[in-house]
Amino acid sequence: MKCITIEDLELYYQDVGTGYPLVLLHGMASDHTVWEGLIPLLKDNYRVLAVDLRGHGLSTKTKGPYNMELFASDIVRLLDSLGINKAHFIGHSMGGAVIQELALDYPDKVQSLTLISSFCYVDTHLKDRLLDLMKILDEEGFNAFFYACLNLTYTPEFKAKNQELFKEVMDIMAKSTSIPALKESIKACLKINFKDSLKKVNIPTLIIAGLEDVFTPPYHAEELSNRIYNSKIEIMDEVGHNLPVEKPMDVYLILKNFLANL
Q1: Strands 110-116 and 87-92
Q2: How far is CA 68 from CA 93, 204, 245, in A?
Q3: What angle do CA 109, 252, 173 make, to 5 degrees?
């Protein structure tokens, strides 16, 4: 992992491969490791930058408040420091909201958008899920929060097959996670609303969702597709919220076709 310093923030990122720059942004309570199945498939054709957002992974757990504008500004400053003028962007869940912000505030930086299991506003269903997670974090601690997230983001079949792996991941994340930073990220998610802004976006956009996603159900993908003029939507069967982990090859093939036709 590499690192740049932005004022009080140390922003960590993985930088592998060669070719046109492609930036990967994870979701809330995650980090760059969510892309481990996808990066090996991308790095032969792209320079892949997988970032740990502020407050996540190895990056500094700065004090709040957090918001999508702040996350987006961090990414632009990273790209500027690397001399990258423009890139493809792929965002998962909250990471998809960050790249929507990038498309609105820094459109000249964005070659294309790929929004995976993402959303452009917080409806009652998503608000309730986020508030439930905040309550669990407050009252029961990180381990209970982690397992609550598993129930929202993976299919029962995938969870059953990977119990030992998830226990190892939880133990690692419990040591590195900042509860205050995690709460700030949840608060930031609760404020997301791009419904009236996305009509301004005229950038090639791919939207991918899992049919069995109970966290951000596929109607969120439909909403994004309806509001972004130049967009294509793909709904994948037999998979939940964490598509890059459950079905990285399937995601890659959809992504490869999209990028090849730009």
Answers
A1: parallel
A2: 12, 21, 24
A3: 80
Q: Domain locations in the chain? A: 2-260
Fold classified for 2-260: Rossmann fold (3.40.50)
Kindly report the three-state secondary structure assignment for every residue of the chain. CEEEEECCEEEEEEEECCCEEEEEECCCCCCHHHHCCCHHHHCCCEEEEEECCCCCCCCCCCCCCCCHHHHHHHHHHHHHHCCCCCEEEEEECHHHHHHHHHHHHCHHHEEEEEEECCCCECCHHHHHHHHHHHHHHHHHCHHHHHHHHHHHHCCHHHHHHCHHHHHHHHHHHHHHCCHHHHHHHHHHHHCCECCCCHHHCCCCEEEEEECCCCCCCCHHHHHHHHHCCCEEEEEECCCCCCHHHHCHHHHHHHHHHHHHCC
- Over residues 11-20, the mean pLDDT reads 98
Digit-coded pLDDT (tens) for 48-86 = 999 999 999 999 999 999 999 999 999 999 999 999 999
Describe the crossing of helices 124-140 and 179-190 by its angle, rounded to 10 degrees: 170
AA letter at 184: E
* pLDDT on residue 230: 83
Written as one letter, the residue type at 98 is: V
